[in-house]
Structures are given as structure tokens and as C-alpha cells.
Amino acid sequence: MQENKIHVYNDGYKGKFKSSPIQYIIGDNGCWNVYGRNLDTDGYYYISRNCKKYKLHRWIALNEYGFTEENQKLVVRHLCNNKKCINPSHLKFGTPKENSEDSVLAGIQPHGETSGQSILNNDDVLKIKELLQNTSITFKELGEMFSVDESTIQDINQRRTWVHIGKEFTPRPKKDRVIADETVKKVKELLLEGKYLQKEIALMCGIDRKRVSDINTNKKYKNVKLL
Ligand SMILES: [Zn+2]
Fold it and tell me: Which residues belong to any copy of the HNH nuclease domain (predicted)?
């Protein structure tokens, strides 16, 4: 369960310039997701301290683990792979090499449920993959169904994200644009009516003529039945 209470991290800073408090909300996996700040264009939060701009999670790691010469030379890894997390126990100093290995191990970011911005959960993704594989529902329709962008669905399909969920999933081929069941039904109705040329039906339904022909000969979309 996500707890929506807003926590404040006190870094004990007593500098001249007051800045807004470091606030966070604890996420499902114990991530401290930064709250009430704007992300910079690189996808990180920043904070000004001692007349210097720090990545917020770096500032916190230094604050927790010490401003040692060694730490200052290293990068801060997100063990949870959630860039927006500032939970000190999820942060670890490491080499740039280790840091990039983290990303590789995690697949491609954003990783999944643990990434702060994701509003899909593992169950949603399983369901999406099942629908992608077993129905002709479009990316757009799936996006609407799960209140995410069409591109999010495409990313799932192309295994750019959520690779770890439903491993036996076979992506839909890129080029084979899938037509919604509703459209297929409409095409079948129009074909049955017998009043229109296939060319005209194609225009009316916004699909190419070959598709209409394939539907007509039951070469494709055989599973979509009119009532
Ligand atoms: Zn975390």
C-alpha cells in the first residue's frame, strides 16, 4: 500500500539561503519519492547548497555517508533504479561503471513498478500483454483503457519496458498494424450488406484495401464474429 503522508528530510543545513524543505512520500517498495519539487530536464531533482548545485539524491548521500574525498569522486547509484528516490538506504556510492551496470541489469529505464512516475503495476502489465497477444485491440485503445499514453503500450510491446513481467510474451510485429475488433466488425457488416466496393469500405473504415480483402476471405480476423 502506498502511504500518502508527506515526510520531510532534515539535512541540517544552516546556510544563508532558505530553500523549500526536502519532502518525500514513501512508495511501495520503500522508495522515498521526492515530493513538491520540479524535475530538471535530465530527470533529476537538484538542490542548491553552499552556493553549489547538487543532484538532490547526491546531496543526501553525501550528507548521510560523509563528504569524504573518496565519495566526492564517486557517483551515487540508485539501487532501486528509481531516479526520483532519495531513501539513503537505496543510495550507494559507486564507480560510473557500476552505475551503468545497474541500468543494464534493470533492463531499460523506466524499469517498472518501482519507477516513480509509473502508474501501471505488475498486474496491469500482465493484463496488457495478455490483451496484446490474444486480441486485436489497438495500442491506442489499450492506452485509453489503462489511462496511459499509446507510446507506453508500444514500449511494453517492443520490450523497451517491463521486460521482467510476463517473460513468455511475444511482441506484436511492428509493421502489422492491428485493427480494433470494432473496426473489423464494421467491415464485416459492410461486406455483408453488399452495397459497397472493398475500396470504399477501406476508405470508410480508415484501413487499407488489402485488409478488407483479408477480412472478406477470412484470411485474417476470423476470430472476430458478428453477433
Ligand atoms: Zn528507492
Answer: 54-100
Characterize the bridge pairing of strands 52-55 and 75-78.
unpaired
| H-state helical runs in 66-180 | 69-73, 96-105, 122-134, 139-145, 150-157
Q: What is the pLDDT, as a whole number, of residue 147?
A: 80
CA of 110 to the centre of ligand 1 (A): 13
pTM: 0.47
Distance 226 CA to ligand 1 centre (A): 49
pLDDT on residue 61: 96
Domain that holds residue 200: 181-216
How many domains are contained in the chain?
2
pLDDT of residue 118: 52
Q: Calculate how far, in angstroms, residue 112's C-alpha sits from the geometric centre of ligand 1.
A: 12
Instruction: Kindly state whether residues 98 and 189 are assigned to the same domain.
Output: no
89 within some domain: yes
Q: How far is the CA of 102 from the centre of ligand 1 (A)?
A: 13
Which helix or strand (DSSP H or E) is residue 94 part of? strand 91-94
65-80: per-residue pLDDT in tens?
A: 999 999 998 999 988 8
Alpha carbon distance 25, 225 (integer Å) = 48
Residue 61 lies in a domain: yes
Q: Which parts of the chain sit beneath pLDDT 50?
A: 1-2, 108-112, 114-117
Query: From ligand 1's centre to the CA of 6, what distance in Å?
Result: 16
Domain boundary among 105, 131, 161: 105
Domain termination site, one of 83, 105, 127: 105
